[in-house]
Design brief:
This protein is 11% helix and 46% strand. It is mainly beta. It has one domain: Deoxyuridine 5'-Triphosphate Nucleotidohydrolase, Chain A, CATH 2.70.40. A 4-stranded antiparallel sheet has the order 1-4-8-6. Strands 2-10-5-7 form a 4-stranded antiparallel sheet. The termini are close together.
């Protein structure tokens, strides 16, 4: 089952999910938006691996699926070429495999929400 905003907040208070730094505005109804650490300009077809600003830590009963935010995808950017699952007991910044699929260069500012994390309980 996908965790709701209320369930994500409860899991954070219980220490089962940790997001540092945490930005309340990035917490949505059923997800949390992770931000790009550094500014990045991608040329058409360019591929890079970058980190999120946030570090995520998950308890053994939590996992997280990642999805490129719609506002980013609409610019022709795919932020998740293959790695879209965050394992239980993970404790690190997220590595994003970003590719510019558009025909023009795209600049992504540092701090821009780029992927959303959808949390689930592991049975």
């Amino acid at each position: 089952m996908v965790l709701s905003q209320t369930s994500i907040e409860a899991a954070i208070k219980q220490g089962r999910i940790s997001i540092e730094p945490f930005t309340a505005a990035n917490l949505k109804e059923a997800s949390y938006s992770f931000s790009l650490q550094d500014e990045l300009t991608l040329q058409p077809g360019e591929f890079v691996v970058v980190l999120t600003k946030e570090k995520i830590s998950l308890a053994k009963d939590m996992c997280c699926f990642l999805s490129t935010r719609g506002s980013i995808a609409q610019q022709g950017i795919d932020a998740l070429q293959s790695s879209f699952f965050v394992e239980p007991l993970s404790a690190n910044q997220l590595k994003l495999e970003i590719k510019n699929n558009s025909s023009k260069s795209v600049t992504l500012e540092a701090g821009i929400p780029i992927v959303k994390g959808i949390f689930m309980k592991v049975d």
